[in-house]
Every structure is written in C-alpha cells, then in structure tokens.
C-alpha cells in the first residue's frame, strides 16, 4: 500500500517537473505560417459608391485568403508570401505582391523592405517602426501558443490589435510590425477588415542562418514612402486612405 503510494507520488512529481520544463521552454528559431484574410465587401463599402460596390460584389469573393511565412532567429526575421492564391480576385490595388519582402535586423533595429505599390517598386531602408504598444490583460490561444493582447496605432488613427507569445521571445511579427516582448502570432487592422493569424510553427535548429535577400527598388524611408503615397493619392477621394494604410503596414 505504502509502496504504491510512493510510486504514485514519484510519477506525479515527474509529470509536474516535465510540465514545468515544457512551460519554460523558449523557441528562438523557426518558421511561422500565417493566413491573411481580407473582407473585400467591407472595403468596397468604404468607397461610399453603392452602385459600383454592388457591381463589384457580383464578381469578387467576399473573403480573400493568402498564405505568408515568417522565418526568424534571435537576430533577424524574413517575411514573404508563401504562395499566391490563383483563385482569388482582388479589389483594384489590394492584391498582395509576391515581390513584397520584409527583412528585419532585430539586433541592429533596422528594416529593409521591398514593396510594390501599384506599378512602383520601393526599397525602404530605415529603423524599425517605433510603435507605442499598450499591453492589455486579454489572452487567447493561437496555433497552440498562449498569447497576450496588445494594441497600437499607425498613421495617427488606424487601430492595430496584436497577439504575441512569451514562449517565442523574438520581437518580430507579420508585415513591418515588431516591438513586443514576443513573436506576434495574431494581428488585426479593423479599418482595413484584415487579419493575420498563425496556422502552424516549424522549428529550425538554433543556429540556422537566415540569408538576407537581394532587394531592389526606389530608395526611400518611412517618411518618404508616406509622403509619396499621400501625394500620389490626394485626388482619390474617400478611397485614397485605405490604399495608403495598406501600403504602410
């Protein structure tokens, strides 16, 4: 009786130790696959042209889904489209480009981004965007990881919601977003009716090298790109801002 009780206590202690070790295991290198979803009907309604919107809704899918991958280690991350969805039909100017590539040097606080906006290809080189994140008390599970909610704004008024995990202490995420004490696995920009959520994680060896790609385009920085976009779309009326916000993600 006492022998069996001792065995049970030993097994319970081993299980507790294993659970504690698993909870304290951090991931510093891997690939995260994201699913980007856009509600195009809501974007069409932003234009306040009911006749045109209803016409487009007859030929466009309500939701577009595209897949992206974020490769990362302790020092750098690389974000790019995993594969193009040939079945998607996009609103003018909102199709994601396979030429869009984002390289972040997390140790040096630098970003290099090859971005295609309509027919112009830019090469943005600058510091990582400085965002004023506010961490809330909300949590949710994404791709098997416990995540904490944080919020910020871009372009002065565009609200952004992020969910990051402490279990991957790498300060990066999809698109140009970074600056949180963990990898961003979920992202939402409500005014663009767009979300990014991780679907799976592929582990890589700790010392995996992530090579910087050769990028090209019209040289610019954050301020220059925003100025270019605002100037180019100043006569686009109420539809202009959504293209600017989308290009500055």
From TrEMBL:
Alphabetized, the UniProt keywords read: Signal
Which InterPro entries does the UniProt entry name for this protein?
A: GLPGLI
Q: Give start-end of the signal peptide.
A: 1-22
Under the heading Pfam families, the entry gives: Porph_ging
Domain of life, per UniProt, equals: Bacteria
Name of protein: GLPGLI family protein
């Amino acid at each position: 009786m006492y022998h069996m009780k001792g065995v049970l206590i030993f097994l319970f202690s081993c299980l507790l130790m294993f659970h504690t070790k698993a909870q304290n295991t951090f991931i510093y290198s891997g690939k995260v696959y994201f699913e980007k979803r856009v509600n195009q009907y809501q974007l069409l309604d932003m234009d306040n042209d009911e006749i045109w919107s209803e016409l487009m809704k007859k030929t466009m899918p309500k939701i577009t889904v595209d897949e992206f991958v974020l490769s990362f280690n302790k020092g750098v991350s690389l974000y790019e489209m995993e594969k193009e969805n040939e079945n998607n039909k996009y609103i003018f100017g909102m199709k994601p480009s396979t030429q869009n590539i984002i390289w972040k040097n997390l140790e040096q606080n630098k970003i290099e981004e090859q971005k295609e906006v309509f027919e112009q290809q830019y090469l943005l080189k600058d510091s990582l965007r400085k965002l004023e994140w506010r961490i809330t008390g909300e949590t949710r599970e994404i791709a098997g990881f416990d995540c904490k909610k944080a919020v910020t704004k871009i372009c002065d008024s565009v609200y952004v919601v992020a969910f990051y995990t402490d279990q991957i202490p790498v300060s990066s995420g999809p698109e140009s977003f970074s600056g949180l004490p963990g990898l961003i696995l979920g992202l939402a920009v409500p005014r663009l009716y767009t979300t990014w959520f991780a679907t799976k994680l592929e582990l890589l060896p700790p010392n995996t090298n992530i090579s910087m790609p050769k990028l090209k385009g019209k040289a610019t920085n954050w301020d220059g790109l925003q100025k270019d976009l605002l100037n180019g779309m100043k006569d686009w009326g109420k539809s202009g801002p959504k293209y600017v916000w989308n290009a500055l993600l």
